[in-house]
Amino acid sequence: MSLDLFNVILHQVCKNESEELVVNYRSQALENNTATSNLVAELHRVFNSKSAKGFGIFRSDSEMKTWLQELKNNELNFYDFSQVAGNKLKQELAKYPFADEGILVLAEYQSLATHYLFIGLLPNSQSLKVTEGLDISATDYLDINHMDIAARIDLSLYDSEPDSNRYLSFIKGRVGRKIADFFLDFLQAEVGLDTKQQNQVLMQAVDDFCTDSKLDKEESTSYKKQVYDYCNEQIKGGEEVSIKELSGELPGHTTENSSFYQFTRENGYELEESFPGDRSTVKKLAKYVGAGGGLNISFDSLLLGERVFYDPETDTLTIKGTPPNLKHQLTKS
Question: What are the contacts of 209-216 at 24+ separation with CB within 8 A?
């Protein structure tokens, strides 16, 4: 991975004897060497791999925004920036019941010509190791793969497009822990690009396009399957869904000689040129999924009307050709 490291520092967030959160500040930034470069490269890779991310923008009164500007203007050095940011994080973190301890990492680096600032609170875990004398001892390590308190600012985008709605990204974290709220408060930011909404609008646009193009059931199902395949491949590869690229890969069904891309632009869908795909949303293009009342049902959309039949009058779903493993369970019970 091509990565240029400019600054990186670690501070420790922990609880004192009174169970109050405190920050133990490192005396100076870390050296830029192979070890620190590898650390930041791994942070960058894991952050990119996290599918549950939100996007935001700074509020006009954001202190973080002011500190970043001072850092850019050399009015604040990176070490001092890390201290004010660490103190702000501690104040916000103390308001929440999860109040995690951990290692606070701040890193400024460039990857593939993009300038980033990473801020994350990493779990500090323990593992066992065998010593040379074949004894067992404990060793501390940074559990990077399980980090869920982290944000990254695309400084290149922020400088070139300050009105962008996505220069700030953060991991949404585990369900029930308001990580999103916490990081927005810490950064004094607000929600920008809503990726879930973008994906839902895309699904609606695909439905409408199939209807306007007067596609029959088989054509419509095939068309949606191609959209799903494209989106799924983008998600797997860690790439964004590009509406123009998607349109170019779809068959030449048009509405008044309009491509799918033109259709979305001319009918007010307000889709971004590109955005991260949402697996749970795009899955509905190729599958029917439903859960409730003790049932959890999922089947390929191609099977509706072939092996799966729905009667809306009686609200009955009929399945012909039961999967062998399910049939075995049913006959055995």
Answer: 209/253, 209/255, 209/260, 209/263, 212/255, 212/263, 213/253, 213/254, 213/255, 215/253
List 289's β-bridge partners, or say none. 298
State the pTM of this model.
0.77
The full set of domain ranges for the chain reads 3-191, 195-285, 287-332
**pLDDT tens string for the chain (333 positions)?**
579 999 999 998 888 888 788 889 999 989 999 999 999 999 999 998 887 788 999 999 999 999 999 999 999 999 999 999 999 988 888 887 666 788 999 999 999 899 999 999 888 766 667 777 776 766 666 788 888 888 999 999 999 998 999 999 988 765 445 566 777 888 899 888 888 899 999 999 999 999 988 888 888 888 998 999 999 999 888 788 999 999 988 875 444 446 899 999 999 898 999 998 888 888 888 777 777 777 888 777 777 777 887 888 888 888 887 888 877 787 876
What is the distance between the alpha carbons of residues 158 and 71, in angstroms, rounded to a whole number? 14
